[in-house]
Prior knowledge:
Order of helices and strands: HHHEEHHHHH
Helix content: 55-70%
Number of strands: 2
Shape: globular
Structural class: mainly alpha
Largest sheet: 2 strands, antiparallel
Number of helices: 8
Strand order of the largest sheet: 1-2
Distance between the termini: 22 Å
Oligomer: single chain
Strand content: 5-15%
Amino acid sequence: MKLSTQEEYGLRCLMQVAQRASETGGSIAIPEISRAEGLSTAHVGKLVRLLRLGNLVESVRGQAGGYKLARPASEILISDVLGALGDPFFNDGFCDEHTGYETCCTHSVDCSIRSLWNAIQFVVDQMLDRITLQDLMGDGHQLENHLAHKADELLQVTMP
Length: 160
C-alpha cells in the first residue's frame, strides 16, 4: 500500500494553510507554500486546485490574498483530504480493472484476496475518519499518543 506523492504533498500544502490560519488567521499564497515545502509553484497550484475542488480551502482575493481553510482544521477529516487528492487503496471497481486476460475476474464469486483488500480499506477508512487536520498540527509525540488512542478505539469497531 502506497501513499501517492500527490496525497503526501497535498496534505503538506494543506498543513501550511492551516498553520498560517492558526498563526495569523490570514491566508497564504501559492509562492509561500511553494517555498515552505520546496515544491514548484505550478505543482503547488495543481494541489491547491484539488484542495479547493474538495471544498477544503477557499481563495481570498486582493493584495493580501491567497488561500485559507474552508472550515476549521478541527472539522477537516484526513479521509476527506486524501479523498480530494487521490483514490482509495481499494474500491469496488478494482476487480474490474485487474481481470487478467478475461473480461471479468475468474474469482468474482468467492475471492479471498478481494476480502483482504476490502478489510484493509475498511480499517484505513475508519482510522482516517477519526483524525482531523487539527490533530496533525500538534507535535510528533502528542500525535503519536493521540493516534494510539484512536487505534485502540478502532479495535473496538467490528467490520460490517
